[in-house]
Amino acid sequence: MLTFLALASVLLLGIVPERSQAIVIYTGWERHGLVGSDIRLSCSFFSWRWTSEDVTFSWTYRPDGSRDSISIFHYTGGVPYVDNKGPFRDRLEFVGNPGRRDGSILIKNLDFSDNGTFTCDAKNPPDIVGRPSSVRVLVFETVPIQAGVITGAIIGVVLGLLVLIVVIYYLMRFLVARRVFSLSVSKHGKKKKEGPQQRQLWTPPPLTCYPLP
Amino acid sequence: MENGPNPVIRTVTMLILLAVIFAVHIIGIVLLLVATIDNAWWMTQNVSTDVWFRWVQQGGVWNHTDLPSGTSYPQEYLQAVQACSVLACIFSILGVFVFVAQLFTLEKGQRFTISGVFQFIACLCIMVAASIYTDRFHLNENGWYGHSFILAWISFGLTFISSIIYFVLRKKTA
Predict the structure, then answer these.
(1) Which among A144, A150, A159 has CB closest to B80?
(2) Chain A contacts of B86, Cβ < 8 Å?
């Protein structure tokens, strides 16, 4: 009975992924970069199958405001092919590790004309059904302070200090109370030890009669 | 035989005093909240703005827009004003709860120092917020300060008075 169940589960696990699972591609949502700097666009995927040798990655670029996208990178058969004619020639570098399902690219020397959407599409044969994922690149002259960062930081620090002060105050009270308690116990013990010794040394005073006032 | 004023009158005066102090504190909180939330720190004919966003009137319709960015509107100071005004509200509200707690837990003859400290911190925070706003924004513009801005300064005064009261007040009954 047990062997039958084991065989059935192995069989099911073998059959089900073939038919229903798709490949899931992950890139960032938005990336910010400074003019003149380098930016790394990461792309990885999840697939139920082992990474095959025919795994492919391809990146396409669509400038802001344009409806056409051009292909800028393709990895297939173990060889990366970078853009050598388009806007990214000599600026694109493949920094991914296809064996680890990483198809990231590096764009050097960013310019304002690089604002746009980069789409990564990965295929892991026979797992080829999937939706490409896009990352939006924004190029700035100076990195802007994101809305609310300083506000949140100030409020968080002040409230955190308040909580810390309250906690320390109650902790000190608790510790001091414990110390006082332990001190009184040790005093009590010392008294008890000296007690019987004193009795041996102490002789009762002789009975005397005092004249009445 | 009476020893001193009528005890009923004494309790009544103490209750009235307590109610007045509580009312001052609550009014301070309300003013702080209105100053922080209501959009009227700086106004012109067609613009009504505060530290969070801006209303612009175009063709009879009020449109909601973001605050301008750039050198005339420094982002860091704006966020500092936001943080300080929110903190002032928070400390004042916490102060109310602390005051009520101290009413029940303080021993006779002691002062309401912690409530006073909370109100004082709220007073400092709203002072910092209003001062930064007065000093750094709308320096060369035509317009006038709106009611939220004025209420911010009034609540500074109220919270200051309230904190002094708490520092001076002693608990009369156990």
Answers:
(1) A150
(2) 151, 155
Report ipTM (2 d.p.): 0.75
> Alpha helix (H) ranges present in chain B?
7-37, 75-105, 113-136, 147-168
How many Cβ atoms from other residues are within 10 Å of residue B165's Cβ?
18
- Token reading at A197: 């010794």
pLDDT tens-digit readout, B27-62: 999 999 999 999 889 888 888 888 888 888 888 888
Q: Phi and psi dihedrals of A25, rounded to 5?
A: -110, 135
Structure tokens belonging to residue B102: 């101290």
B114: three-class secondary structure by DSSP: helix
Say if pTM beats, i.e. exceeds, 0.90: no
Whether the bond between A213 and the residue before it is cis, its omega within 30 degrees of 0, is no
Most confident range (mean pLDDT) of A21-35, A185-199, B16-30 is B16-30
* Buried-state track B74-97, b at ≥16 Cβ within 10 A, e below 16: ebebbbbbbbbbbbbbbbbbbbbe
